[in-house]
Amino acid sequence: MVVAVLLFSYFKKFYFKETVLLFTGNTAFFVFGYFISEAPFIFLLYFLFYVFHERFIGKFRQYQFVFFASLLLFLLFTIRYSGVYIYLGVGFFWLITILIKHSFPLKKDLFQVLLFAGIGIAGYLGFNLYIYGSFTGENVRGTLQQFSSVYLLRNILGVSAVFDPFIMIKPASNSFASLAFQIGLMIFDLLLLFYFIQLVRKKKEVIALDFHQLLWVVSGVYAVSLFVSYYFQQIEEMNVRMLAAANFCLFFSFLIIYFKNLKSDAFIFGLGSFFLFFLTVYALKTPVNYLNNKKQIESQMPQFSHKKYLYNDEKKAEVSLTTYHIPIIGKTFNYQHTNNQKGEIKQSIAGTINPQIKWLKIDTIKNKSQVLYTSELILK
């Protein structure tokens, strides 16, 4: 998919340099390297960017724009239900234009896109209700999340990372040190946002401002909607995977604006190359250990083929610490990697082997025989 996007960008002359750098960012790197449904979701989102951009600058005719934009919005929803937040973002942008920009020429086009995509989404939901008895599987979801000030802070920190193209790290724990480090990153992210705002003010006369405003609105609606959804559905915390689309929108907008009237691209390409190398090294870690762990878990999975749900019940088990040594100053320190705990390792590998199994954040399933607990998997 990455190659397809790069080739498309090159031959269509659609911000090729910007697209190359887009894939050096944290979101694209992990989405296309690790996650199942997010990869095609972001893949289609990129082409939705293209369709809107070409219509905004007058290269697409009305019927082309309405057909492709409606189809892509519908397909995004069929891949991930969070695609409805992209749809809502476009709808909110349309509402803003009819209330504020009385001379906006594409109001009718956007309305038709929302109408046809909405019909498709409504039809899909109706089919789900008729066949499965629920719109989006809400009848098998967990109970409402209990309010916790700590997790509210963690989610706010996660959402703030949307402004950061390269560093999106969720707190490893609820310890003071971990949260303090994340707050420091949030301050840095807010500085990036301030720089972005200054960049827009400086170059707003030479960019397709309507297109960028669409990306900003979609990103904001997507992030806020997910944040609210956390407390009404059993979904993950705000992290790279959950906020991938919001970050992708902002990063692409930033790159396009940054390259306008740019004298030299050496710095941004150097920065992108560094983080691509860093993310690659970080992702590889110890591949021998991963392959060994996968071999152990894979041999056990057939006996659990009837399980529908996967739950990590080892969150309070013995903590695994990674020791780092800094040679120049001769110091060592220990760090608790969230994804390097035994329960997390088992859960991620089991989920990769059986992509159909549903992950549980809270064990609310009444029939426990349907749940695969990580403690049932043996990892030496």
Automatic annotation (TrEMBL):
Record carries keyword Membrane: yes
Keyword Lipid biosynthesis: no
Lineage: superkingdom: Bacteria
Transmembrane spans: 20-51, 85-104, 111-131, 151-169, 176-197, 213-232, 244-260, 266-284
Keywords: Membrane, Transmembrane, Transmembrane helix
Name of protein: Uncharacterized protein
Annotated source species: Kaistella haifensis DSM 19056
